[in-house]
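Hey,

The postdoc asked me to send both predictions to you directly instead of through the lab channel. I've kept everything plain text so nothing gets mangled by the mail client. Protein one:
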Amino acid sequence: MNSTNKHILLTGGTGLIGGRLTEQLLEKGYRVSHLSRSAGTDARVTTYLWDLDKGEIDEHCIDGADIIVHLAGAGIADKPWTEKRKKELINSRVKSIELIYDLLRDKKHGVNAVISASAIGYYSDRGDELMYEERAPSNDFMSNCCMLWEDAVDKGNDLGLRVVKLRTGVVLDRGGALAKMEMPVKYFFGSPLGNGKQWIPWIHWQDVVDMYLFGIENESLAGVYNMVAPNPVTNKQLTIAIAKQLHKPLWLPNVPAFFLKLLLGEMSTLVLGSTKVSAQKIENAGFKFKFPGIEGALKEIYG
């Protein structure tokens, strides 16, 4: 089936990645619709409404859909991890896919695949060990969140769907994580965090979008894949690379770990945790990275 008559339903379609993926799908001739909490503003995209708290979903969202791309989920670093927020982070990922699967069970449809985001938080803080997809998860909040998320997505197997889960690393784009990292560097306060030796499993946004397209177009692709560039860098290497692109000096000592723990609490694992992640499996499946190295990736973004 060629793209011109394939219909993709996106959750989280208005986010940073969702927006970019929508653009590229439309460019390639796909039909695209969104499942969203609010009415859409893009005339090229049909927007269906859902409300997770009320467990409501427009049952017409799956009409004519071939593939569902599940990107919905509250922002991990947007707010402090109170118990209430943790629940929200899990429910926004888990309850959302459950709502879709309930609908697929109840109604005739032509959906044959679900391609879902997951995160490298699945492995959490693992030092210098290289993480392959079959490694066991860690046992902290991030790992548990990712595990529950992936388990919920896997229920699609019982519905006879092709299920792909992409464990996303730190996505480098003009907004998001990179904006937070470059801020201190810009104002001459830049310095590595903690000992600076922790591994950052980064990926350029274009490779993220391309990998979703790869998952959509390769009907033999199934299971879990790491969504990270093949050349991980340490926090210190990344900080230096950002400073180089911004032509700023780095002269401050590292930001002490205890200060970050004080400031961020449990969330400090997001910046102090070390996760070195392998891209071997997706490369073996035939995926080609446009930005395998950090220099080239940052150059494109700051271009």
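Protein two:
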Amino acid sequence: MSIGDTLAQARSQAGLTITQVSQRTRIRETIIRGIEHNDFSACGGDFYARGHIRSIARVVGVDPEELIREYDSTHGAPEAIRAADVFEPATPIKLKERRRPNWSVAMVIVLALVVGYGVYRAVAAVASPHHGAVASGRQSAAPPTHSATPTPTPTPTHNSHLVVIRLTAIEDCWVGFTTPAGAYLSQFLVVGGSSKTWRFHHAVTMQIGNPGGILLTVNGKNLGSPGQTGPLTLSLGPGTKLPSAQAAG
């Protein structure tokens, strides 16, 4: 039995209409009818199709994982990416090495100045007519020398750039993450009444299946509920204050 036939039969056995399923999943009726006829073209891509299948299956009482495996066997499983591709920069960053001051040369210069000053004082004392009286009356003290103290070099601080996303689900909602280039990262189902937090060290694209049934906080900013029906896409990056949002198909 195909995915569409399985969902349609389960909906009929549960005594639900397409309108009721649409109200509970926040998925448009035209998309639900298309899925029941195995037409996924209105879903907007494989990622959204999997999310719609999960939402509808849970409402009509069918195990969504079996249907997802069947969908992947027909349309292809999501491409996995390595963590190194996400967190490592594409171009290596070259750090300039800070050159340490040459204190040996500085000390030689200071020592030469001290010796030169001592010789000057000695010559001046010999040439003075009162050299004998001054020499018997007191001992000339060598001028104090002050060793140069190196100024400590400030240690550069490393600023951590995070994208911190916290989602509180009022109703069941599926959530997915991709890179800005569209590479699949992960997908979750957040059950109503629970919360979940994600942290990324890079920009991400967040897809939300039920934006009207959640509360969202990004980088400490409470964005509240997007208040829309149907899937929603958010582009989030380090330092994002008010993410740009656009409704997805």
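Summary for protein two, as requested: Residues 80-93, 131-137, 154-159, 242-249 have pLDDT under 50 and may be disordered.

Thanks,
C.
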